[in-house]
Design brief:
Number of strands: 0
Oligomer: single chain
Strand content: under 5%
Shape: elongated
Helix content: 55-70%
Distance between the termini: 62 Å
Structural class: mainly alpha
Order of helices and strands: HHHHHH
């Protein structure tokens, strides 16, 4: 897909989302009347409460992980999903409430995180083989792992040989 089409498709998707949200609000309001407003207010208050509670838990786990010196898989993504879910619950609308609730609930977050990871990986796979990506070159740099006396690899040491083309000089003998 050409680059210039992406903003147009994103804008069109946003318009479809807004129209669906308004259509659902109109439908629900014709079915239950003014209780629609009460439902939206309750979802906003619930969203603010859940955002505060889940964000505190996510922040606590994130800061504990950082204090120990490592970051377990999913902690950062969980924090981002909690923020997005809370803000979606605070926004008026039933579709955003459903999506926000799914993002906030601890038992639905791992599934959503894996789906988003799969989608992002698939979306980025088209960029890994592009000429502008330096990691996509076919250059092979030969080398060897230098190990300690106990067999563990040395960290952060680059050993440059004194004569990199020593093998070529041995082949050029006069005999």
């Amino acid at each position: 897909m050409p680059i210039f089409r992406a903003p147009i498709l994103a804008f069109a998707g946003f318009l479809v989302f807004i129209l669906a949200e308004v259509a659902l609000l109109v439908f629900v309001s014709t079915q239950i009347g003014w209780w629609t407003l009460v439902a939206l207010m309750i979802s906003t208050v619930l969203g603010a409460y859940l955002l505060q509670r889940e964000w505190r838990k996510a922040w606590k786990h994130l800061s504990e992980s950082l204090n120990t010196g490592h970051l377990p898989t999913g902690r950062t993504a969980d924090a981002a999903l909690v923020l997005m879910g809370g803000f979606m619950l605070i926004m008026p609308g039933f579709i955003t409430d459903i999506v926000g609730l799914l993002l906030l609930l601890p038992f639905t977050r791992p599934g959503i995180r894996s789906v988003l990871g799969w989608w992002a990986g698939r979306a980025m796979s088209g960029y890994t083989n592009s000429p502008s990506n330096p990691a996509s070159t076919d250059t092979v740099i030969e080398g060897e792992v230098v190990t300690d006396d106990d067999g563990s690899p040395l960290q952060g040491i680059i050993i440059v040989p004194d004569h990199p083309h020593e093998d070529e000089d041995e082949d050029d003998t006069d005999g």
